[in-house]
Amino acid sequence: DSGVTQTPKHLITATGQRVTLRCSPRSGDLSVYWYQQSLDQGLQFLIQYYNGEERAKGNILERFSAQQFPDLHSELNLSSLELGDSALYFCASSASTGLAGGRDTQYFGPGTRLTVL
Amino acid sequence: AQTVTQSQPEMSVQEAETVTLSCTYDTSESDYYLFWYKQPPSRQMILVIRQEAYKQQNATENRFSVNFQKAAKSFSLKISDSQLGDAAMYFCAYRSGVAETSGSRLTFGEGTQLTVNP
User: Fold this and answer.
1) Which of B94, B104, B108 to mutate to test the interface with A (most CBs of A within 10 A)?
2) Does B112 touch chain A (CB under 8 A)?
């Protein structure tokens, strides 16, 4: 158990819908990361938040957005869903922004499997 | 942009034997970190081992060790005394040490599916 929790575990929805994925980082971790794992794109970084602020952005679609709340949990919002958005979405957390070297190991949650029908 | 390549989509090993998984990466940075993550059938991503680029000594964690060749940009994982529980997808990952420009994102390779035969 990494200490990172994600809900829900599974989500099945229809095209055009909107869903919200939730992540709670490990106790004390300030950084949250979102990754997408799909068959055709592999594991891709979406976005990072540090202590409530966006830190880095990767290949995140405009239909997707995220935020980190004062209690440090994060939500990933996916809207106007398409079949191609079906994937496993991981949240990871780490202690710092990355400036602290070895302390900044990312620990992954169990993932949310999204199926768009 | 940094890239990570795992040229072995699949590997197999006999229980108790040793196997080496390959990983190469491309970067113009001198400060960075390399990781191996394991993804068993449960799909959980589990950190196996970490290497800091500034350290010449290869990292070791119990039966897992790496061969880090900085000049060749190679980062292979050796699993000794393989166990059935080692069967998983293994991902090599890169993280820049220059957090100001790229945050702390991980760039992953395509993965190597390891089968352990009894």
Assistant:
1) B104
2) no
